[in-house]
Amino acid sequence: MTVDSAVTAIAHPNIALVKYWGKRDEEYILPHTDSLSVTLDIYPTTTTVRLDTALDRDQVTVNRAPATGEMLTRIRTFLDLVRGMSGRAEYLRVDTTNTVPTGAGLASSASGFAALALAAAVAYGLDLNPTGLSRLARRGSGSACRSIFGGFALWHAGTGIGEEGDLSSYADPIDAGALDLALVVAVVDAAPKEISSRAAMRRTIETSPLYAPWAESSHQDLADMRAAITRGDLDAVGEIAERNALGMHATMLAARPAVRYLSPASLRVLDCVGQLRRTGIGAFATMDAGPNVKVLCRGGHAERVADALRSLSDTRSVITARPGPGARLPDGDS
Ligand code: PMV
């Protein structure tokens, strides 16, 4: 028999409160700015890998269907990297189950590559500490480096490019003390996006006159966000997250041609969030590379926020998340 024992890893998506948007090194996936996120307790990805000496290429299924196209290429390129690091040559059978809609701006690549990085590192015998794992996950999808950690995480942009940049760019967990945060996810459209975040980032950097000012203001957002988290000031956390996300979308709208992920339904959710605020509920929105909106609020308000979002006619589903765990092996040895 050529198949070694299986390694299974689980990881959850994370949502950035101060966003990553734009790379200074595409090959090493090194960002221009630091970013800060919260890992959720919903939508886990479970990935099982098996070394198989009979294979002459990695075989990948996602939700039981064979992976194809760009997704398969990205996974194989990533596994080539892990093999290079470990000095091993065998290919893998990879079976992934995603509970989050893929490619809809709901951070499926973050949970996906965090789970794959952990499972593949263990399968190939790489001895990585959490920082090393975070660096490795970053090479699959930038935001995945933050899903290695549970709760709040800060991804350091680091300095330099290539190998030097690689060493300096990873996520660290952040202590968010008693911050009672809930994120209510309003899914308005679960279809895969028309333009990948990778392509959209490149176009934004190359053509948007608003990119540089946003990246500059993002430094202040990060400093303000860290101070708000330390104070346990949830309203400030929400305000900063919302302004940072809207600014990121403004950079895309100013790209040539424009990248627009937000739909009329997204804007109706934003209206609803504004309405909630006027009734005294601290609710704030953040949006990624897709039309779906995540609404930050205190845990005690999550039910009312979810009810308000559900009452909108174009909301497909509403699910409430709390800070969740980092990437792990379910049998508990990581
Ligand atoms: O990791 P990627 O390439 O899927 O980029 C994700 C970027 C955003 O989700 C839009 C922002 C972020 O920081 O997660």
From TrEMBL:
GO terms assigned for molecular function: diphosphomevalonate decarboxylase activity
Keyword vocabulary terms for this entry: ATP-binding, Lyase, Nucleotide-binding
Domain Mvd1 C-terminal span(s) in chain numbering: 184-313
EC number: 4.1.1.33
Residue intervals of the Diphosphomevalonate decarboxylase-like N-terminal domain: 11-160
Domain of life where this protein originates: Bacteria
InterPro entries the UniProt entry points to: Mev_decarb, Mev_diP_decarb, MVD-like_N, Mvd1_C
Group of enzyme by EC: lyase
Protein name: Diphosphomevalonate decarboxylase
Organism in which the protein naturally occurs: Nocardia iowensis
Protein encoded by which gene: mvaD
